[in-house]
C-alpha cells in the first residue's frame, strides 16, 4: 500500500494548478452567464507562449511566465471582442457552443505552429526530496506557492478594488449595474483579461509540472468544469476549494480504479454535485 | 532409297518442329521478367527507414539478375512509396497489382499499411512480406499470403524477459505498458519469462496515451519498490514517463524498446534523465555471412533493424520462386516459403547459393542477414536476435546481443 499522504500531496499540487482556470471559468460564467469552454485552452496558449519565450528566445522561465500571463490575457480579450461580444444577447447555449468552437480553433493554431509533439521548457529536471516519507519536488512547492498567492490577489481584487466590486455588481445583476453607471463592457474586458492571464499562467505551471502539448488544456476541461460546479458558480474561494477537492479525489481515486479511468472521476463529481447539491459548496447565491 | 510413309513424315516433322520450336518458346518465356513490387515508407514517419530498405532490395535483385535470374528469368522491380499512410499504401498496392501485375510485394513497414493492403493482396493472390510488428498482421485467414520478418509482440516480450532474467539484481520488476492492442500480450510474455527465472512482478499497469503527466501511475508503481521498471510505449509517452520517474528520485533501472528510446527521446529528456536507461530491439545476425554481404552492398544500412530484413525478404521471395520450377505466382511463393526458409535443408546465405542447390534438386534452408528466417504456420518468424543498449553520457552504447 503506497503512502496515502503522497497521493494527497500530489492532489493538492494538481488542485493548485487547476484552481487558476477554475476561478477564471467560474467568475466568467457568473459574469457573462455562459460556460466558456475556451478557458481551458487558454492554458495551452499560455504554455506555448512561454515555450516560445523560454526555448525559442532563451528568456528565463520566470520572464516567460510573465509573458504568458500578458499574452494569454490579450488573446482572451481578443477572442471576447471578436466572438463573444457580438453574441452577448444570444442564449447561453449558443455562446457555450461558440466557446467550444474557439477552443478548437486555438488548439489547432497551436498544433499548426508548434506541431503535435510533447515539448518541455529549458529548465533542469530536478529530483524530489524526501520529507517525512513524502516525495516533494521543488517545482511543485514553487507552483503551489505562486498559485496560492495569485488566488489571494484575485480574491483581494474582487473584494477591495472598485473594479472588482463593479465586476461583482455586474455579475449579480448586469442590468442594474449598467443603470447604476457601471461600464459593463469595460468590466467584462478586464475580467476576461484577468481570467485569460490566470489560465495562461496555470498553463505554464502545468507545462513545468508535466509537459507541453497541444491537448494539455483541452484535456483538463472536465476537471475545471467539475471544480467550478463543485465550488458553486461565481465563487472564487468555492472554485479554489472545488479544484483542491477534484485534484485530491482524482489522485486518490487511482488507488481504487486504474489510472486509465481517471477522467471518469471528474464526470462522477459533476453528476454527484448536480444531483445532491446543484448550487455547489459556496453556492448560496446559485 | 527409303520412302517415308505419311505417318512417319508427320511424326518426324512434328518432332523436328517441336525440337526446333521449343528453344524459342523457352527463350521467349525466360526473357520475360518477373515483376515484384516494393512498398517501403520513403516519406512520413517511416521515412528514415524506407530508403535503406529499398536500397537493400535493389542490391539483392542486382545480384539475382547477375546470377542469371530466377530459373532463367530476371526480376523487374517496381517501387512505390506508401508514405507511412494506409490510404496511400492501398493506392500504391492497387497500382502494383493491377498495372504492374506483381507476384509479390516486399518490405511494407507500418502495421497500419500492411493491414490495409492485406485484403487486396490476398484477393489477388499476391504474396506480401514486411517488417510490421502488430499481432493482427498475421492473424485471421490470409491463406498464407502474408509473412513478416519482424518478431510479433509475444516473441518480443519473451526476448525482453530473457535479457531481464540475465540481470540477477533485478529481483522485483514492474511493467508499465502504453494502452495499445499489444501492451497486454507483450507484458504477459515478458512477465512469464522473468517469473520463470525467479523474479517477482510487483506491479503491472496499463497507462493512457497523451497525458501530460503520469505522476499517479508512477506513484503507484514505485510504492511496490521495483528494481526494474519495464516500459512498453512509444517515444512521446516515454519522454513524459521517464521524466516523471526521474523526478521522484527513483534509483532503479529502466528498460524500454529502442524505438521509444531513440534520438528524439534523448533530446526530449536530456542526458541526465536518460542516463542508464536500458533499451533493446530486434538485431540483425551480426556474424552471419548474409549480414556481411548486406553491409558491403548497402553501406550505412545498419541504422535501423529493417534494411537487413528487407534484404532477406526479397531473397526469400526469389528462392521460393526458384523452388517453384518455372511456375511464377504469389501462390508459388507462399507454398514454397517454408520449404526454402525452414529446416531441414542445407544452410544457404544467398540467392545464388540456394538457387544452385535447388537446381540440383536439393533442399535448402536460408539463413539471412536479419536472423535464421524460420516461419511458423501463420507467417511469423520463430526467432530473432536482439541487441541491448544502454544510454551512457547521452549516447546509446551497445551492451550485448541476446540470441534466441
Q: Please write the string of helix (H) and strand (E) elements of chain A.
A: HHHHEEHHHHHHH
Please report the first level of CATH classification, the CATH class of the largest domain in chain B.
Answer: Alpha Beta
Which structural category fits the helices and strands of chain A?
mainly alpha
Report the span from N to C terminus of chain B: 77 Å
From the N-terminal CA to the C-terminal CA of chain A, the straight-line distance is: 41 Å
Q: Note the beta-strand portion of chain A.
A: under 5%
Q: With helices defined by DSSP (H or I, 4 residues minimum), what is the helix count of chain B?
A: 13
- Give the CA-based shape of chain A: globular
The side-by-side strand order for the widest beta sheet of chain B comes to: 7-6-8-9-10-13-14
CATH architecture of chain A: Orthogonal Bundle
Label the CATH architecture of the largest domain in chain B: 3-Layer(aba) Sandwich
Low-pLDDT residue spans of chain A: none
CATH superfamily of the largest domain in chain B: Response regulator
Number of domains of chain B: 2
Helix content of chain B: 40-55%
Describe the protein's architecture and organization.
The complex is a heterodimer of chains A (286) and B (404). With 286 residues, chain A is mainly α. Chain A has a single domain, classed as ABC transporter involved in vitamin B12 uptake, BtuC, CATH 1.10.3470. Helix content of chain A is 72%, strand content 2%. Chain A has a two-stranded antiparallel sheet. In chain A, helix 1 packs across helix 9. Chain A is globular and about 60 Å long. Chain A starts with a helix and ends in a 10-residue tail after the last helix. The model of chain A has no long low-confidence stretch (mean pLDDT 89). Chain B has 404 residues and is α/β, with parallel strands linked by helices. Chain B folds into 2 domains: 180 residues, 3-Layer(aba) Sandwich (Rossmann fold); 147 residues, 3-Layer(aba) Sandwich (Rossmann fold). Helices cover 44% and strands 19% of the residues of chain B. In chain B, strands 7-6-8-9-10-13-14 form a 7-stranded mixed β-sheet, with helices on both faces. Chain B has a 5-stranded parallel β-sheet with strand order 2-1-3-4-5, sandwiched between helices. In chain B, helix 5 packs parallel to helix 6, helix 8 packs parallel to helix 9 and helix 11 packs across helix 12. The longest helix of chain B has 26 residues. The termini of chain B are far apart. The interface between A and B is medium-sized, with 36 and 31 residues.
Amino acid at each position: 500500500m503506497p503512502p496515502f499522504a503522497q497521493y494527497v500531496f500530489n492532489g493538492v499540487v494538481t488542485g493548485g494548478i487547476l484552481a487558476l482556470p477554475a476561478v477564471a471559468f467560474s467568475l466568467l460564467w457568473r459574469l457573462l452567464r455562459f460556460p466558456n469552454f475556451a478557458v481551458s485552452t487558454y492554458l495551452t496558449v499560455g504554455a506555448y507562449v512561454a515555450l516560445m519565450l523560454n526555448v525559442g528566445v532563451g528568456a528565463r522561465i520566470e520572464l516567460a511566465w510573465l509573458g504568458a500571463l500578458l499574452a494569454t490575457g490579450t488573446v482572451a480579450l481578443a477572442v471576447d471582442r471578436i466572438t463573444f461580444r457580438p453574441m452577448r444577447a444570444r442564449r447561453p447555449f449558443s455562446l457555450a457552443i461558440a466557446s467550444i468552437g474557439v477552443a478548437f480553433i486555438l488548439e489547432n493554431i497551436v498544433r499548426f505552429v508548434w506541431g503535435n509533439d510533447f515539448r518541455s521548457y529549458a529548465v533542469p529536471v530536478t529530483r524530489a526530496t524526501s520529507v517525512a516519507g513524502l516525495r516533494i519536488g521543488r517545482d511543485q512547492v514553487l507552483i503551489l506557492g505562486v498559485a496560492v498567492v495569485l488566488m489571494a490577489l484575485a480574491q483581494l481584487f474582487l473584494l477591495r478594488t472598485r473594479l472588482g466590486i463593479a465586476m461583482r455588481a455586474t455579475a449579480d445583476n448586469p442590468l442594474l449595474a449598467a443603470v447604476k453607471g457601471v461600464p459593463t463592457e469595460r468590466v467584462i474586458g478586464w475580467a476576461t483579461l484577468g481570467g485569460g492571464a490566470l489560465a495562461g499562467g496555470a498553463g505554464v505551471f502545468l507545462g513545468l509540472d508535466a509537459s507541453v502539448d497541444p491537448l494539455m488544456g483541452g484535456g483538463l476541461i472536465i476537471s475545471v468544469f467539475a471544480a467550478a460546479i463543485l465550488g458553486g458558480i461565481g465563487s472564487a474561494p468555492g472554485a479554489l476549494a472545488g479544484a483542491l477537492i477534484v485534484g485530491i479525489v482524482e489522485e486518490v481515486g487511482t488507488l481504487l480504479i486504474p489510472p486509465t479511468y481517471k477522467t471518469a472521476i471528474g464526470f462522477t463529481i459533476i453528476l454527484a454535485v448536480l444531483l445532491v447539491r446543484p448550487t455547489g459548496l459556496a453556492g448560496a447565491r446559485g | 532409297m527409303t520412302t517415308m510413309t505419311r505417318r512417319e513424315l508427320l511424326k518426324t516433322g512434328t518432332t523436328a518442329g517441336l525440337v526446333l520450336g521449343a528453344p524459342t518458346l523457352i527463350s521467349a518465356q525466360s526473357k520475360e521478367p518477373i515483376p515484384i513490387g516494393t512498398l517501403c515508407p520513403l516519406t512520413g514517419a517511416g521515412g528514415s527507414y524506407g530508403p535503406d530498405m529499398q536500397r537493400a532490395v535493389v542490391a539483392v535483385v542486382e545480384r539475382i539478375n547477375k546470377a542469371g535470374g530466377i530459373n532463367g528469368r530476371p526480376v523487374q522491380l517496381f517501387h512505390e512509396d506508401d508514405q507511412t499512410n494506409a490510404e496511400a499504401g492501398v493506392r500504391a498496392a492497387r497500382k502494383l497489382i493491377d498495372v504492374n501485375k506483381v507476384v509479390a510485394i516486399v518490405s511494407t513497414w507500418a502495421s497500419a499499411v500492411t493491414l490495409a493492403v492485406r485484403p487486396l493482396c490476398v484477393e489477388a493472390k499476391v504474396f506480401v512480406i514486411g517488417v510490421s510488428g502488430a499481432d493482427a498482421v498475421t492473424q485471421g485467414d490470409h491463406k498464407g499470403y502474408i509473412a513478416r520478418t519482424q518478431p510479433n509482440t509475444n516473441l518480443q516480450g519473451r526476448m525482453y524477459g530473457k535479457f531481464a532474467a540475465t540481470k540477477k539484481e533485478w529481483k522485483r520488476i514492474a511493467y508499465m505498458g502504453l494502452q495499445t492492442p499489444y501492451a497486454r500480450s507483450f507484458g504477459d510474455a515478458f512477465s512469464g519469462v522473468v517469473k520463470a527465472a525467479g523474479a517477482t512482478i510487483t506491479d503491472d499497469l496499463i497507462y493512457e496515451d497523451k497525458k501530460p503527466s503520469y505522476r499517479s501511475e508512477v506513484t503507484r508503481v514505485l510504492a511496490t519498490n521495483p528494481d526494474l521498471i519495464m516500459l512498453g510505449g512509444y517515444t512521446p509517452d516515454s519522454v513524459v514517463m521517464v521524466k516523471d520517474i526521474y523526478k521522484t528520485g527513483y534509483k532503479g533501472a529502466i528498460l524500454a524498446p529502442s524505438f521509444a528510446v531513440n534520438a528524439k527521446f534523448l533530446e526530449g529528456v536530456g542526458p541526465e534523465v536518460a542516463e542508464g536507461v536500458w533499451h533493446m530491439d530486434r538485431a540483425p545476425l551480426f556474424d552471419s555471412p548474409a549480414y556481411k554481404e548486406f553491409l558491403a552492398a548497402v553501406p550505412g544500412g545498419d541504422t535501423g533493424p529493417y534494411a537487413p530484413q528487407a534484404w532477406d525478404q526479397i531473397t526469400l521471395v526469389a528462392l521460393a520462386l526458384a523452388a517453384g520450377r518455372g511456375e511464377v505466382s504469389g501462390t508459388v511463393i507462399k507454398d514454397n516459403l517454408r520449404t526454402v526458409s525452414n529446416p531441414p535443408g542445407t544452410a544457404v546465405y544467398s540467392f545464388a547459393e540456394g538457387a544452385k542447390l535447388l537446381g540440383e534438386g536439393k533442399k535448402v534452408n536460408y539463413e539471412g542477414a536479419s536472423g535464421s528466417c524460420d516461419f511458423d504456420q501463420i507467417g511469423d518468424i520463430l526467432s530473432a536476435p536482439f541487441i541491448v543498449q544502454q544510454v551512457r553520457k547521452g549516447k546509446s552504447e551497445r551492451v550485448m546481443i541476446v540470441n534466441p
